[in-house]
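Narrative of accomplishments. A recurring question from our advisory board has been how the design workflow behaves on a single, concrete structure rather than in aggregate. To address it, we present the structure tokens for one chain from the evaluation set, followed by the sequence designed for it. No filtering or post-editing was applied between the two.
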């Protein structure tokens, strides 16, 4: 698992895996929103957490189609499925590498980009915390869609169609937790714990479903 994680991480960081594309897309979305909304700082501050979360979701979708496609093209996917590491654990390693390369930079950049959206300090910290807890769920959900579309020559659109409905609950509870940290009547703990629970749930179900989809596509 460690060797597979380091291999995929090197591929993602080299640019061939598409991780850097997602980071640049996230920066472009967040940086251009203030120009479209206008100079209303109150409005930007109110919708800022949602913008950061939507940008993170769309950026993650961009990187998912190449999660297994490169291994499918060079024949490495069959070796991974029949290797000494159990297929669900191999999928989990690949998801971890993708998250470190493509999503962790989004989490680290979110406080800085939140300044462009006039977010309060508490909102900046809450957004970073919710992205840290919720973006692994997006990758794990996306692994299922990527596994289904791995055998297709152009499965990028299919991955987005399959993943987006399943990712909506993660988006809802992530934004709700961020708003709860800023607005006193709204709760923070409950939606944040649900967000963490979704990540743990998909951490179990996602690799199992993705490995099953990959085996079916390879038969």
């Amino acid at each position: 698992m460690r060797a597979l994680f380091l291999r995929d991480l090197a591929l993602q960081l080299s640019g061939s895996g598409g991780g850097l594309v997602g980071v640049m897309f996230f920066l472009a979305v967040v940086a251009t929103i203030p120009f479209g909304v206008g100079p209303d700082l109150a409005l930007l501050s109110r919708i800022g957490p949602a913008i950061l979360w939507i940008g993170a979701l769309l950026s993650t979708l961009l990187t998912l189609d190449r999660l297994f496609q490169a291994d499918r093209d060079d024949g490495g996917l069959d070796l991974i499925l029949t290797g000494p590491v159990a297929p669900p654990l191999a999928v989990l390693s690949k998801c971890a590498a993708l998250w470190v390369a493509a999503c962790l930079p989004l989490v680290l950049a979110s406080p800085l980009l939140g300044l462009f959206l006039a977010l309060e300090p508490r909102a900046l910290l809450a957004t970073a915390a919710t992205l840290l807890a919720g973006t692994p769920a997006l990758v794990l959900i996306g692994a299922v869609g990527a596994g289904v579309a791995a055998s297709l020559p152009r499965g990028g659109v299919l991955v987005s169609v399959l993943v987006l409905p399943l990712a909506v609950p993660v988006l809802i509870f992530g934004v709700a937790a961020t708003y709860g940290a800023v607005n006193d009547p709204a709760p923070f703990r409950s939606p944040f714990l649900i967000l963490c629970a979704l990540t743990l749930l998909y951490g179990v179900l996602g690799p199992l479903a993705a490995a099953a989809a990959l085996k079916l596509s390879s038969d």
